[in-house]
Every structure is written in C-alpha cells, then in structure tokens.
Amino acid sequence: MGGVSKNILMLHASSDLYGASRVLLQVAIILKEQGFQPILVISAPGPLQKAFEAETIKVYIRPLAILRRKYFNLTGLWNRFWTFMKAKRELSILIKAHEIDTIYTNTAGVWVGAVLAKKHGLRHLWHLHEIIQKPKFLTQTVSWLARRSSAEVLVVSDAVKEHWQLYLSKTKLRRIYNGFDFTYLDEEEHQDIPAAILEADLVIGMIARVHFWKGQVYFLEIAKGLKELGVKAKYVMVGDAFPGYEYLYDEINRKCLDLALEDDVIDLGFRKDIGPVLEALDLFILPSILPDPLPTTVLEAMSKGKPVVATAHGGALEMVIDQVTGLHIPWDDPTLAAERIHDILVDREQLVTMGKKGAECVEQEFSQNAFQKNILALIADDAG
C-alpha cells in the first residue's frame, strides 16, 4: 500500500461510549486490523479510553479545546482560545513523536485537527456526525476550516450531507452509513433490571445522552399524552448528561412531577449493558427535537427486533420506514405524536412484525461489512 497513510492520530470530543464514540472505536479497530496504527487523543479519561486500550490502541489524554455551548460567552471563549493554543503545542509533539501522516477528527466540536493538518502538511479526514443549525457561525467556521485544510469530509447520512453541502463542495463530502457488529450489546456485564420494568405489560423507552435537543422532556410529554389516552406503560429513560449539563436533570425531574408521571417513569441513568435494556422494551422512541444525524441507538434497537418511533427529521428518516419498521412522529406536537403511537400500540402483533422487519433492514443497509469496506476505501484513497 505504497503512499497510503499508516500512522493516524484520532481526535474525539468525548470519552463516553455513546453513538459517535462507538463509531470511532469501530473505525480504529478496522484500521488496526488492516495494519494501520491509530492513536487516540481525548481530553478526559473514561469508558472510551478503556475500550481503546482493551484493543491495545494507544490513548493520550490531552487538551483539545472542545467547543460546547457552555463556552458561548466572553469568559468561555477566552478559555477556549488559551486551551486551543495549548492543544496545538501538545499535539504537535505527538505528531512528531509518532510520525503521524493523517489526522482523523471525529465530530465538529474539535477544530484543532484541521489547523494542525494545515500547519504540518498532513492529510486530514473529518468525520461529521452533526447537523448544526444554530449558531450559524459554528457551521461557517467548521466549513472554513474544512476548506482550508483540504479535508475530506465523511458524513453519516444523506441528511447530514444535505446540510453541509450548502457550505462545502460536494466533491469533499462522502456519505458512509455507520455499520456495526451488534454483538457488543450483549458483551457488557449485566446490571439488574428493575422488577417494575420486567413485570410491566408494556415498556416504552428511550436511550440518549442527556442534552437539550435529545428530547428527554418531549419524551415525557408524549408519555403524558399516551397516559391520557388510556395507555398503561412504564417509560424507561437511559443516559447521563454531558459534563456541564447536569442541570438538565433538574428540568427533567420537574417536568416529570408537573406531568404527574413519577410512578410511570423509570430513569436508569448511565448503563453499559444496553442490550438487556433494549430486550426489556416493547417500543423504542427517538424523541430528538432537532435533526439527529444518524442515531446509533436506533440501529441498536432495530438490531434487537424492536419497532422504532422517531421524530421525522434528520437521519431517522433514512433509518425508520414509516408504518413498516416503525413510525415517524412530529418533533413539536406531543399530543399528535401520542395519538399516532397509540394507533400502533393497539395491535401488539403489528409491533412484533415491525421489529422483525427493522432487524432485517439493519442487516441489509447498516452492516459492519459494508461500513468496513467503505471506510478502508476512504482511508486508502491517497488523493488528499
């Protein structure tokens, strides 16, 4: 593979094991198996570090000057500037020490990779999972950096591609659907599932990092609507908050009390063992109030044979076939959403059929083999 990049510095915005992190882990494993040498840099220790080290892939904890909404003020931006300068210095040392020839940036929250690729004359691949609608300066800055660093931009869905092609040349954008071997869902050590879930006649759940746009509050509003329609169910919420966003738990708890759902909702918080949780569900809901690019949890639920209800925007429109593998619902009308969900809950056999068709769809459209083939084709393309 003469001329093909071999030493790859991978930069990522978080140390969790949610969707984008699992995709990065999958990419790193694929590259390592093909003789590449990936090295991960994250800004804090966590489950992702342990997962990489379990694959004997080197991990460094270094500042990356990740830009999050909590820094959108004068003090925060000043903090990010100095952290960015420190990140440049420390990553430049790693680039030289490991003779890096490619920088692989995962998610739009890390900008330093594009700057360093330009500075050191390296190939830069940017894997974008986001659809950034507001603030617009974020989209414009990421696009400017991508153009300047001659980055090849990998996007995870057609919805993401349509968003970014307003700012970037179509020739830079490559859409590759995420694909997994979902056996990992059953490999984590199992935790106890509360008896209230296991004994319930109907269990409806969502799994997502707690964030303002992930729709936890909307999920509760839908649950209230279903309860008013006479649906008796337990509603399961899984996921912890991004650092700095823990206050969102207070909003969720207040909403639960305001809607008189405290006896109906079970919040499991962070769970490693997603497989058993999914198996306990009868219906999975993705209630994102902003377009979710290609949510991994939808694929995980479908792989377990669960019908999926998703808000009708973003990558979910490419993943969930309305009335076939699940249901599309509005993202801003919990009453209408509850009515549509109620219609399919009437026929439990229909739910089972939807789940089976969803599992078939995952196997056909989001397979690990297709993902591996496409990723290797991108990495081995030395056009950069």
Could you walk me through the main structural features you see in this protein, from its secondary elements to its overall organization?
- The relative contact order is 0.12.
- The model has no long low-confidence stretch (mean pLDDT 92).
- The protein is built from 15 helices and 13 strands.
- The protein has helices spanning 19-33, 47-54, 74-97, 112-120, 136-148, 158-164, 195-198, 216-228, 248-258, 274-280, 296-303, 316-319, 334-345, 348-365, 368-380, and strands at residues 7-12, 37-42, 59-61, 102-106, 123-128, 152-155, 173-175, 203-207, 234-238, 265-269, 283-286, 308-311, 326-329.
- Helices cover 43% and strands 16% of the residues.
- The strands form two sheets. The chain has a seven-stranded parallel beta sheet, with helices on both faces. Strands 10-9-8-11-12-13 form a six-stranded parallel beta sheet, with helices on both faces.
- It has two domains: 7-175, Glycogen Phosphorylase B (Rossmann fold, 3-Layer(aba) Sandwich), CATH 3.40.50.2000; 186-365, Glycogen Phosphorylase B (Rossmann fold, 3-Layer(aba) Sandwich).
- With 384 residues, the protein is an alpha/beta fold.
- It is globular, with a radius of gyration of 21 Å.
- Strand 8, helix 8 and strand 9 form a beta-alpha-beta unit.
